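FIELD: query
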Amino acid sequence: VKRLIYSGEVKPGERLNEAALALRMGTSRGPIREAMKELAGLGLVTAVPNRGMFVRQLSLRDMLEVYELRALVFGYAAGRACEHLNDEHRQTFERLLQAMDEACESDEGTLYYELNLELHALILELSRNRRAQQAYDDYVKQLHIFRRKYFNVPGNMRRSNVEHREIYDAIAAADAPRARRAAEQHVLSGRSRLLASIDEPE
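FIELD: result
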């Protein structure tokens, strides 16, 4: 079901029919219902009382506002991460950056997106600020459907990972101002790449 949403086969605002999905996937409605709960937790679908589950919909204006807030929180987290990085974290960063480079080379947008979420979550974890983590997680959930699509473009993935490396290098150097600037700019650059992909004809 997640793949149907990410691919755009099921559009934002569209109602998800449990019976039809169960038939399509050769299963009962129970697993579909459980999948819906998981997708709601990810922010991909929302429940409308007496109507069912719908793919989450966000206006362009809402998306731009959320991006601005997300940039501020991510910059803050990257700056704070400089204080808490250890050797184990360094190894995790290197593993994720290498795996994302490989995903770029093999043109695996879905894999890259999942790894991207993992790297961002690590930076938020290193901020040691639970409220920042909660706020950022909420912003990410609201933007899932917009953001996943533009990672299908190889150039976007490569540029994104170059920026990840710049953020990590600043964190590893314990340069909090540089880490904050790089992280904020990364999110705002991602917004620009996303807007360009939205403007492109299908």
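FIELD: remark
The chain has a mean pLDDT of 88.
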